[in-house]
Amino acid sequence: EECKNHTLAANRCFASNCRPQKVCLCPFLPLHPLHISTHLYIIQHPAEENKVLRTVPLLAACLPQDKCKVKIGRRFSEERDPELSTVCRKSDTLILYPGAEAANLEEFILDSPIYPSTIIIIDGTWSQAKDIFYKNSLFRLPKQVQLKTSVSSQYVIRTQPTNRCLSTLECAAAALSILEKNDYIQETLLRPLQALCSFQLQHGAQIRLSKEHLLKNGLYPKPMPKNKRKLRKMELLMNSVKI
Prior knowledge:
6 strands, 243 residues, DTWD2/TAPT, alpha/beta, tRNA processing, 8 helices, six-stranded parallel sheet, globular, tRNA-uridine aminocarboxypropyltransferase activity, 11% strand
């Protein structure tokens, strides 16, 4: 049976692959797209596009179409995407990507003479996001920021590298609530993610612990890698060192 809540969610119910009514997420979406002034650009790795339980469609369903744009690809340049190039060159654009050069978002907006109007977030596994960030010079033009959080991810049906890693939706929810100075935004964006995880757990999915937790507690199900680089990454996870 198809979803009967389309009108409630202004036709934002993932029409191309609509969920059965009993697990429909439309009741957990806001009645109208959230009113925000910040522009959000999601740079999505092509491998994410075909994953069933991805979070970006939930995020996009909660926001106005003109404030949330998804760009799919591995490589971006001024020739391939003039719009994105222009956005990256603006002084009020931020990119959310952790690292030694990244400023804490909350602290940055307190001191910045120009208040940010746009934030870019990369969607993919950590290795995919790292590849996109470092192999596209455009993404090193905006100010690099990160979230300061000790909260564990609520996206419990997908394995995260560490206990501190968040899904794309969770990152966007936290960043937008800070930029818009409105905690309601984060609560609203997390609601369909919480419902998605709840439905999946009710229908046989299991809670996925982070790789860091599994390694620390001797529960990692696979043999340790022989590749020295991969082994070093495993050791860093076990010792709670940022990688």
